[in-house]
Amino acid sequence: MQSSMQTDFDVVIAGGGMIGASMALAISSLNLRIAVIEKVRRDDQLQPSFDDRSTALSRSSQSMFTALGLWDQILDAATPIKSIHVSDRGRFGFSHVTAEEQEVDALGYVVINRVLGDVLLGNAKKKKNVHFFCPAEITSIESQEDYCNVEFKSEDSKNSISSQLLIAADGANSDIRDYLGISMKQTNYEQVAIIGNLLTEKPIASMAFERFSESGPIALLPLNNGRAAFIWIVPTKNAETLMSASVNTFLSTMQEVFGLRLGLFSSLGERYSYPLALTEAQRLYSQRSVIIGNAANSLHPVAAQGFNLGLRDVATLADCIYKETLKDKSDLGNIDLLVEYSELRQHDHKKLKFFTDGLVRLFGSKRRSVRILRNAGMMYFDLIPGFRKFFVKHAMGLSGRLPRLSRGVAFNEEE
Fold first, then answer.
1. pTM for this structure?
2. Which of 90, 110, 167, 241 has a CA-to-CA distance to 119 between 20 and 30 Å?
3. How many CB atoms lie within 10 A of CB 293?
4. Out of 54-63, 147-156, 293-302, which region has the weakest mean confidence (pLDDT)?
């Protein structure tokens, strides 16, 4: 690749969490000069990307990490999901999906964020063409016709670097999105996610559970140490009481909602909580800048699709950058590249937003007619294999037009 301009870096990535690190790794083989600017230290408790929460990785995410040569490292600490059981508390409808039925080894994998973060950051920092500035906070962005200039402060010093392209990967509360003048729409669900892990009396093995109730859903995911990770969605008004409740009170309250399918709960780990909202950027690019991950869309965790959606942002943008590098005179921040990325991501974003928001509203409704419909729908979902296969293909991130990395194809491989 021969650049048509001189800049300090080819690409600057604002945000060094799991999506930002994945972006750096995705394009690290393209002979680019890459800078990652992250304002929170890796070991800081305020760094949300690398705590003890768990992430469910879809099949397309697995394929991407395989193409990047990282999957074996991740797999060592990951737990396969062989089946998923979905039920509605107090109702007769339920659904059950298995990996065997879908003819795959696993429907997905569960990995602790801290472990995944170690793999991603550890490998990114080994790349000689990836430079980290951390802790460093971006204070201004100036986009010109030929370059983008980023100013940031690091401890007591101020710095300025230029690049062809700025990628915002700094999360749902993105400062970069604001600097770029990209507005966002936010829907407050008036719910809080309580997250942690516990021990189940009956082995959870490789099963995942989603249990809906009038107060909100509970998801239990298998961990590789025999414990279960949980995500419990509760009304905001109840969250503080549950977070401050004793271990026994918390477990018994959660047990009442989930039931005894896995026996009694015990050995509660540390609890975390965060408010839930649907955040939608009104556009995905500005001059010489583009946004990915939660900076573009922050979804309700009911379907565990947020991180996987962000990885498909990464893979799609990496595809666009790869094609640009093949030109004699390349410009990674040109408007055609930015528009192409935006157009390629529209359908996937809309589909996932519609799906997750629809689930929240469907199972949160107290109307009798809606309850009857969802009970019947869950029953028929389980009785119609063809529809179930179609639905699960979308959930595994394997529907529609997939970029190279999401199909497991590295940039140095022939398709």
1. 0.89
2. 167
3. 28
4. 293-302
Inter-residue contact 322 to 411 (CB < 8 Å)? yes
Helix (H, G, I), strand (E, B) or coil at 64: helix
Q: Which residues of 96-131 are buried (b: 16+ CB within 10 A; e: fewer)?
A: ebbbeebebebbbbbbbbbbbbbbbbebbeeeebbb
Residue range 346-371: average pLDDT? 64
Q: What is the total residue count of the chain?
A: 415
When comparing pLDDT for 225 and 139, which is higher? 139
Q: What is the mean pLDDT of residues 160-176?
A: 95
Dig out the tokens for 394 from the structure: 């979308």
HEC-encoded secondary structure of 177-213: HHHCCCCEEEEEEEEEEEEEEEEECCCCCCEEEEEEC
| Interval 131-158 mean pLDDT | 93
Return all residues near 12 (Cβ < 8 A) that are at least 6 apart.
34, 35, 36, 37, 148, 150, 161, 163, 165, 166, 167
Q: What is the three-class DSSP state of 383?
A: helix
- What is the distance, to the nearest Å, from the Cα of residue 177 to the centroid of all Cα atoms in its chain? 18
pLDDT in tens, 36-94: 999 987 665 555 556 677 899 999 999 999 999 999 999 998 999 999 888 776 554 55
Sign of CA dihedral 234, 238, 244, 247: negative
Residue 43 has a pLDDT of 65
Q: How confident is the model at residue 370 (pLDDT cuts 50, 70, 90)?
A: very low
3-class SS at 284? Answer: coil
346 in Cβ contact with 282 (< 8 Å): no
96 confidence band (pLDDT: 50, 70, 90): confident
Alpha helix stretches (DSSP H) within 365-409: 368-383, 385-395
Cis peptide preceding 135, ω within 30 of 0: yes
Tell me the fold of 9-186+276-407.
FAD/NAD(P)-binding domain (3.50.50)
Interior CA angle at 172 toward 171 and 173, to 5°? 95
Sign of the alpha-carbon dihedral angle for 131, 135, 141, 142: negative
Please answer whether residues 198 and 265 qualify as being in contact, where contact means their C-beta atoms are separated by less than 8 angstroms. yes
Question: Distance between CA 288 and CA 333 in Å, rounded?
Answer: 5
pLDDT of residue 348: 87
Instruction: Classify burial at 225, counting beta carbons within 10 Å of its beta carbon; exposed 0-12, middle 13-18, buried 19 or more.
Output: exposed
User: Distance of CA 157 to CAs 40, 41, 133, 135, 151, Å?
Assistant: 16, 17, 12, 11, 11
